[in-house]
Write a structure and sequence with these properties.
7-stranded parallel β-sheet; alpha/beta; about 40% helix; 3 domains; Rossmann fold
């Protein structure tokens, strides 16, 4: 065997097999390398050769084909200065010369000339001289294949093996065990698929997964892989940027936030949309790309490209950079009918979509109607109090207007959160109700929200789904109430 393969085989025989028997004494130590009870049959060997040659060469080769090819290669490239004349071969010629190259493969020269292998035990005829001769033939094969036959005596012994390529799936699997523990479980199959495709570099990639399904975590996993480079994460929300920043710090990921930290290279570079056009960021991206140190650009809440012109303007500046890196787009609300519109916005043709089923089986929905504003406020407080008495937790109340948020917050004796407010309000919110505008609806991960209450008609189905997603996270049961006046106008089913 080639030297490096022989070292690997020695480790297997010396360490792996004894360890296996030590861990499980009932393990039978068969005298065959793969632990089978008997040698491989011709049929099994043929199936393996056909499968592997089809996979790696694109051509299916049988065991018989393999023998023919080996004999031809041996005669053309390995056997030194030999001529072969098969015209006068005779099965009964006891004086027939058997070439060592043929004996080494367990058949006679006559059989070799007819391309048939001899499945018999040839070890009975081995002698020290024949082993030396076979070793020399093996070395000739190794030279032709480009392998080293044995360790160079002039160098110190070193069993260090070149790393065997590990698939992306195996790398991600190993990462989850090391960083999240052996009990780690994917939140859904789509989260696993998204993490693998991000790590693989698939571009453009669009992940449409429900809230709470781990889209952001899939991105963080890719940044924690051993050979990961920089990832730029673009988000429209400061609160979400703060949350991702904290998650990176918790997992030991080198992270900066543009606008708050000194601009430098890092594994994770978090950017709020209004900072995307900063000259310092653009220079950093150019530098990272020039040094082949930029893996990807991730755009969160991509559905806002279809709704928010200001967001679209900032993301346009990212597209204009034109860097040939992976682009990943994340959202929880992108109806299939809007895929073409999104592709027009991001100027990418046929992106790969990973789409999860947008449903929350642990969340109950209900609609309540009332005649006056005062009745609606009273009904809201009653529903919140009943739910809190039943199972505790937080209650998130959504309103459209800032003024209405403040009025309801005073009525419920709680705080209000909307654009311009300090994010410390969210950090200090541990229990009971909080009144908020739609700014809190996208991407913000808040734990233990057991009830979501909409006072009035939402802006549209997409906003409604985003806001509903704040409740019932981490598999906990939740309730969604839509509290309407008896006379309301129907709203746009999408926007």
């Amino acid at each position: 065997m080639p030297y490096r393969l022989s070292v690997l085989m020695g480790i297997y025989l010396r360490d792996v097999i004894p360890f296996r028997c030590m861990m499980d004494p009932s393990t039978l130590s068969w005298p065959y390398i793969f632990g089978d009870e008997k040698p491989w049959s011709t049929e099994k060997l043929t199936d393996i050769i056909k499968r592997q040659t089809q996979r790696h060469m694109g051509v299916s080769i049988t065991n018989r084909d393999f023998r023919q090819i080996i004999v031809a290669i041996d005669r053309r490239h390995v056997r030194p200065g030999q001529t072969h004349d098969d015209e006068d071969d005779d099965d009964d010629d006891e004086g027939e010369f058997n070439h060592p190259h043929d004996q080494m493969t367990a058949h006679s020269t006559h059989v070799a000339s007819n391309w048939y292998g001899q499945l018999s035990d040839a070890t009975h005829s081995f002698t020290p001289e024949s082993l030396d001769m076979f070793r020399d033939i093996s070395c000739r094969w190794h030279r032709w294949l480009g392998f080293a036959s044995r360790m160079d005596d002039s160098v110190e012994f070193d069993v260090t093996m070149e790393e065997i390529p590990v698939s992306i799936e195996e790398q991600v699997h190993k990462l989850t065990r090391e960083k999240y523990g052996v009990t780690f479980q994917w939140k859904c199959q789509e989260q696993k698929e998204l993490a693998i495709e991000i790590a693989r570099g698939t571009t453009p990639l669009v992940g449409v997964l429900p809230t709470g399904s781990g889209k952001t975590e899939a991105v963080l996993m890719a940044t924690m892989l051993p050979n990961a480079k920089s990832t730029v994460f673009v988000t429209p929300l400061r609160s979400l940027a703060d949350e991702i920043y904290a998650s990176c710090k918790k997992r030991g990921i080198d992270v900066i936030r543009v606008g708050k930290d000194t601009i430098r290279r890092a594994r994770m570079i978090i950017v709020v949309t209004e900072s995307v056009q900063s000259s310092s960021l653009l220079k950093l991206l150019d530098s990272l790309h020039a040094d082949d140190c930029l893996d990807r650009i991730v755009v969160d809440e991509v559905h806002m490209l279809l709704k928010d012109k200001s967001y679209r303007k900032h993301i346009d500046s990212v597209k204009e950079i034109g860097l040939p890196v992976q682009f990943v787009y994340l959202t929880a609300t992108l109806p299939p009918c809007d895929e073409a519109k999104l592709e027009d916005e991001i100027i990418f043709d046929k992106p790969k979509y990973i789409r999860g089923l947008i449903k929350k089986p642990n969340v109950q929905y209900a609609v309540r109607t009332c005649g006056t504003e005062k009745e609606r406020h009273t009904m809201l407080k009653s529903l919140i109090d009943q739910a809190h008495a039943s199972h505790g937790g937080k209650a998130l109340v959504f309103c459209k207007a800032t003024k209405e948020c403040d009025n309801l917050a005073r009525f419920l004796s709680c705080k209000a959160y909307y654009a311009g407010q300090d994010t410390s309000i969210l950090q200090e919110w541990n229990d009971g109700p909080l009144v908020a505008s739609s700014i809190i609806g996208a991407g913000v991960n808040l734990d233990n929200i057991r009830g979501v209450y909409h006072v009035g008609v939402p802006y549209g189905a997409m906003d409604f789904e985003q806001q509903v997603g704040r409740g019932g996270r981490n598999g906990k049961n939740g309730t969604v109430f839509l509290i309407l006046m008896k006379q309301v106008k129907p709203f746009n089913p999408v926007y």
